Amino acid sequence: MGNTLINVYVRTGDLVSAYKVFDGMPEKNSVTWACLISGYTQNEMPHNAFAAFGRMVAEGFIPNHYAIGSALRACQRLGAEGLKHGVQIHGFVSKTRYAFDVVVCNVLISMYGSCIEGYEGCNYAWRVFEGIASKNSISWNSIISVYSQRGDVSSVFRLFSCMQKEGIGFGFRPSEYTYGSIITAAAESLSVNHGSLLLKQLLAKIEMSGFAKDLYVGSALVSGFARFGSIDTAKSVFQHMSTRNAVSVNGLMVGLVKLKRGVEAVEVFLETKDLVRLNFDTYVVLLSAFGEFSCVEDGNRKGKEVHGYLIRTGITGSRIAVGNSLINMYAKCGSIENACSVFNSMTDKDSVSWSSMISTLDQNDCFEEALSIFHTMKTTGLIPSNFTLISTLSSCTSLGWIKMGEQIHCEAVKLGLNRDVSVSNTLLCLYADTGCISKCKKVFSFMQEHDRVSWNSIIRAFSDSEASITESTNYFIEMMRAGWSPNNVTFINILAAAAAFSRIELAHQLHALVLKYDLMDDTTIRNSLLTCYGKCGEMDACETIFSSMSERDDVSWNSMISGYIHNEQLAEAMNLVWLMLHNGQRLDCFTFATVLSACASVATLEHGMEVHACATRACLVSDVVIGSALIDMYAKCGRIDYASRFFKSMPLRNVYSWNSMICGYARHGDGQRALEIFKQMKLENQPPDHVTFVGVLSACSHVGLVTQGYDHFESMTKVYNLTPRIEHFSCMVDLLGRAGEFDKLENFINRMPIKPNVLIWRTVLGACGRVNGRVLDIGKRAAEMIMELEPQNAVNYVLVANMYASGGKWEGVAEARKAMKVAAVKKEAGCSWVTMKDGIHIFVSGDTSHPDMDAIYEKVAELHLKMKAKGYVPQIRFALYDLEMENKEEVLSYHSERLAVAFVLMRESELPIRIMKNLRVCGDCHSAFKYISGIVGRQIVLRDSNRFHHFVDGKCSCNDYW
Fold first, then answer.
1. Which residues of 696-724 are buried (b: 16+ CB within 10 A; e: fewer)?
2. Which end of the chain, C or N, has fewer beta carbons within 10 A?
């Protein structure tokens, strides 16, 4: 009667009452003790079970196999902590008649498997298993389960085979638990292809054995097939199961979510929610399914509905995992506010909660907020995980916050998480993107193991400068020697480096390796090859690759167009644009911006306007990127009025829009308007960047605003926290040089925090070349420095010669020309062009190849006489040859821009004359164009390599300050 009462109380979980009955029993036997010990074990009170077992032995009772089994199961529940008690019980049992009892030994196998990690646990379990004289199916299931838990698939199948052979003689066969253990081992440990094939073979055996519809086996099969992506087989097993549970439902849903089939996962939930008792894990999976909806709005809406249900049932507040899933669901659906709301409402948070919130903010460009959450997390005492550090380091990378990134790096070292490959990979990205290449190299060298991402990251880090591209190539070779095959990312990174620095030999080698690794069908790699060959000037190779592509994306077309533009084949680029339109290919913003940039570079206004019309028809003209490109195009094509009109009509402007307008006005010599736009930019709270100040300082330089120029230069650091770059120092040198402030100029250069480069000395020479009658010491110094730094650039010799010519020092001009010959450097020919209805007409200084050249020369002579009659005096100092006066005048008369203007004037028209030149206009031609504009009564717009000049009625827009 007492034993029965104890069992009743045990089943209801009332161990206090059970013990009272036990304690009040005048007589107890082994069964009584076994009931109490079993009760403690079943109700998760293992320490009480050990105490009861010890007291039973101490009071002289001999434990039966039920008492021993219950005590051993208590050890099993405690894991490693229970091993000590388990060994003691095993020692006691070995002295009794139960030493080889199959029931006790079966529990001992499971106990050692659970209490000792790794293969040592297998060894102890195996010794017990070998000692069983008459093994039963539970013995085999127990030992198979031990090896299954460790993912030892080969041992599991070896034991399974032995079990089948031995079972024939002893009358037992594999049970549902056997198959469950085998399926679990296969699902946890094997590769996708191997695991899926093995499960299909097992499925055939299971169907023959009649266990296919078993709940335990069926659930394991569904989860296994779903894990390996064999979702159709998983669904088939699921549909044929006679009963289903939460495990099978969750397994199928997880598989569908992994394959981005969130809608189907939700359908499984809806079909089973009223038939199966679902658990919390089901809702976790369901919420993740909403994040995989192709329509984000639908996922967000349905996710909110489930969220409401979870709030009403009280599940949200009671389970951290559900709260974490809600955060991830809202993050994937793009609802950051809801994700933050869930996070803030959670009374309990674990490290996953914090990591999920930080990751959500990082992935949605809320970098500063992510780092703020990270700092708050540290105050809670929770230890950041590797996932936490990855997201915070990613935010530091995006913000360029290297100091904070270094602090998090130190924290990773303290926590030992720097040994995590993913954390180290994120550190590589941080240091690479912030230019800390030496630290990037150090992180890589300290990594205990590298994966493909590590190699790709270090290769990319050393691909950003020409000096280190060799090191990047060496890492690429090391990667292959280490046994890692390069993937598309590897090739894209190193092809980008080859493209950036025009390494054609490297491009050919990489192309050969792409073919070797059979990656040529990858569109991203083909696009990278197109870009690389285009940058290296091999458009024939580009055309071959492009024509062989069965599938082309926007990047493919854009790469070809960019290649043509880079190689100055604008006609081919425009033909490809028209082909895209003819084929119904929708041009994206990048395509339009690229083509507009090309039109701007060669100043083909007509083509630019055609592209503008196409963008309007495509409803893309309101895009801020295209709008900025249009402003830049019109400004560079001489229509600053069109650029201004379009700028004013833009509904939305970004920093590029403002920069295009400021630089446009500066280039046209209208410094005051450029500064007005800058003032308006500040009023509209648009932060300026480095390019903005290049435009602002150029504007000050072109109109001689020295004081304002200094003020704007100093505001970069004091107001906007922008460190001036070499181009800003060059603008200041130009400003002082144009103003004739050479003492201040020299002092400014001497105080520069960075070493003056070729750009600075070239600017100095340009300024000295505008000084008549003398050669300055700073000019001589600049000449020496520029020849030392860049002896192979013809422009430098021309600038030196100009400086000496302006000072009348013809021996200096002769020396510069002699040095040029010794260095085997050729000066780029002066070239001007005009766009007419019948095409583009190009003229070179002294050229006689144009079919109308005789008439052009006659027109030049006619204009020369008319100019002289108006008071024109040739400025022979701009003739770099020490010739007779008449010969110098003749050389100046046949400069390319003079030939171009004469050609246009031969044709009847009242339209403004637009001439483009590849070099800077000389002072004599500038003077001549003022006279010509007054003589012919037409506006002449001349764009040289430096700026625009608008000549009207004998005056120039630059007011001779150029």
1. bbbbbbbbebbebbbebbeebeeeeebeb
2. N
**Cα–Cα–Cα angle for 397, 402, 408, nearest 5°?**
85
- C-alpha to C-alpha distances, 388 to 371, 375, 417, nearest whole angstrom: 10, 11, 11
Q: pLDDT tier at 882 (50, 70, 90 boundaries)?
A: very low
Q: Which residues pair with 464 in a beta bridge?
A: none
CA distance 263 to 293: 6
Q: Supply the Cα-derived Rg of the chain in whole angstroms.
A: 41
Residue in this structure with the two tokens 């990613």, named with its chain if needed: 394
Least Cα distance to 771 among 733, 732, 742 occurs for 742
Indicate the SS3 state at residue 844.
strand
Q: For the sheet with 955-956, list strands across it.
A: 839-844, 831-836, 913-917, 940-943, 948-952, 955-956
**pLDDT tens-digit series, residues 84-106:** 888 888 888 888 888 888 888 98
Scan for tokens 């290449």, then name that residue: 437
Q: Determine the Cα–Cα distance for residues 147 and 155; give it in Å rounded to an integer.
A: 7
> Residue 482 has which token pair?
């280490």
How long, in residues, is the chain? 962
**How confident is the model over 822-879, as pLDDT tens digits?**
777 776 777 898 888 887 888 988 778 888 888 999 999 999 999 999 998 887 655 5
Q: What are the backbone dihedrals phi and psi of residue 955, each rounded to the nearest 5 degrees, phi first?
A: -125, 155
CA distance 786 to 805: 18
CA-wise closest residue to 845 among 922, 916, 898: 898
Q: Which of 308, 353, 309 is nearest to 331 (CA)?
A: 353
d(CA 548, CA 546): 5
pTM strictly above 0.90: no
Cβ atoms 635, 664 nearer than 8 A = yes
To 10 degrees, the CA torsion angle through 307, 309, 314, 317?
Answer: 0
Would you say 144 and 156 are in contact if contact means Cβ atoms under 8 Å apart?
A: yes
Cβ atoms 958, 929 nearer than 8 A: no
For residue 869, what is the enclosing H or E element? helix 853-869
Centroid of chain to Cα 567: 28
pLDDT digits (tens, 9 = 90+) for 536-593: 999 999 999 999 998 888 889 889 988 998 888 877 888 888 788 777 777 788 888 8
Task: Map tokens 């008792």 to a residue.
Answer: 277
Task: Indicate the Cα dihedral angle 553, 554, 559, 564, nearest 10°.
Answer: 120
Angle 624-636/589-602 helices, nearest 10 degrees? Answer: 10
Q: Where are the beta strands (DSSP E) in 558-690?
A: none
pLDDT tens track for 152-161? 878 888 888 8
Alpha carbon separation from 348 to 202, 207, 343, 353, 565 (Å, rounded): 43, 46, 10, 9, 59
Q: 305: part of which helix (H) or strand (E)?
A: helix 296-313
Residue 38's region, left for phi above 0, alpha for psi from -120 to 50, else beta, is: alpha
pLDDT tens digit string along 898-930?
A: 999 999 999 867 788 999 898 888 888 999 999
Backbone angles phi, psi at 909, to 5 degrees: -170, 155
Q: Going by DSSP bridges, is the β-strand pair 948-952/955-956 parallel, antiparallel, or unpaired?
A: antiparallel
Tell me the C-alpha distance between 634 and 31, whole Å: 99
Q: Hey, what amino acid is at 731?
A: C
Go through 603-641 and write b for each residue having 16 or more CB atoms within 10 A of its CB, e for each that does not. Answer: bbbebbbbbbebbeebebbebbbbbbbbbbbbbbbbbbe
Amino acid sitting at position 519:
L
Give me the half-sphere count of Cα atoms (radius 13 Å) on the Cβ side of residue 166.
14
- 843 DSSP 8-state letter: E
Helix (H) or strand (E) holding 176, with range, is: helix 176-189
Is residue 57 within 8 A of residue 91, CB to CB? The reply is no
State residue 172's pLDDT score.
67
